């Protein structure tokens, strides 16, 4: 497994809102091309609706965080991100956590809940992956073509600056490699004991509903599902009010138990 020897918690960009002493912190985990800014005001809205504190951060190599300290990912890179999140929780002194993860961030949320169950009281995922599908690879290949032929690169540079090139190819190159076709984290799911809300757009261009079914049926804890018709890979942007409503309902029920 690759190591990240140059990782430093101080080099991670964060946005933290602590308005509710004694209440949980919702930590938002961005997707493979995401960052703090691309969440817009969704985290603040969910925090206000649930009376929860909020923390959003740019993973290493993204947004305003420090650059990658390695140039090639292996099949364990998302597990490494879960380990890093565990280190960050200790650094931030946060031990009452609800995770909200989108895409890669959803997979990291699942892995963190499996590996560090004592710290995670609930998880919301959007478009999370637990294995590789052909539709995922097709979506990434389309993104590569857009990166090469449209203004996608310049749009990403607005948010990621000098990190953009390495960030994009770390994702696209890893997922489309022959090695990564065998990537699978289903073995971690039975270790997840907390409650889950599994969200996915029915028209998600990066994954089928088999991802939702696998997550829901293999975890040890209880789960509920929200599959949204006519929605693709970013439900919190495409159907924000519905996702806010269902996420608020989930968190309120979680905290009432």
From TrEMBL:
Residues 24-128 form the AB hydrolase-1 domain. One of its GO terms (molecular function) is hydrolase activity. InterPro entries: AB_hydrolase_1, AB_hydrolase_fold. Keywords: Hydrolase. Gene3D superfamilies: alpha/beta hydrolase. Pfam families: Abhydrolase_1 (PF00561). The keyword Hydrolase applies. This is Alpha/beta hydrolase fold protein.
